[in-house]
Amino acid sequence: MIVTLFFWPAVAASILVAFAGALLRKTTLLLVAAALVLPASAYLAATPRFEVWGLFPVGGYLLAALAIRRLDGLPGRTTSLSLIAGNAWFFADFFAEVSRSPLNP
């Protein structure tokens, strides 16, 4: 219950902040998004089902920041948006899996 209470709002905020950072080309916002999602990712990485897969959202945000920094113009923005969309898909799929779980009331 506490995990749901703290992690899902942080995940939603990180996705919104990351999209804003990519559209505005601000690497600082992408780093803030990575910091927001870090506790949830560490929790997922500690579970046997996700192991190392739980750390991919943080890496995706850091790679998106690197793409904004290194690639000029449209290629940097497109690359970062596709990495952020992958993170959004990861968490949407995880949320769907959790909500279908028989342990979830």
Describe, in plain words, how this protein is organized in 3D.
The chain has helices spanning 2-24, 27-46, 56-70, 74-99. The protein is an all-alpha fold and 105 residues long. The N and C termini lie close together (11 Å). The model has no long low-confidence stretch (mean pLDDT 87).
Summarize the helices and strands and which ones pair or pack:
Elements: H1 2-24, H2 27-46, H3 56-70, H4 74-99
The biggest sheet, with number of strands, parallel, antiparallel or mixed sense and barrel status, is: none
β-strand percent reads under 5%
Spans where pLDDT lies below 50 across 5 or more residues: none
Alpha carbon gap, first and last residue: 11 Å
Mean pLDDT: 87
Shape: elongated
Number of structural domains: 1
Order of helices and strands: HHHH
Task: Give the C-alpha Rg.
Answer: 14 Å
Beta-strand segment tally: 0
Which range best describes the helical content: under 10%, 10-25%, 25-40%, 40-55%, 55-70% or over 70%? over 70%
The structure class reads mainly alpha
Number of helices: 4
Task: Record keyword descriptors for this entry.
single chain, 105 residues, mainly alpha, 4 helices
In short:
The chain is built from four helices and no strands. It is mainly alpha-helical and 105 residues long.
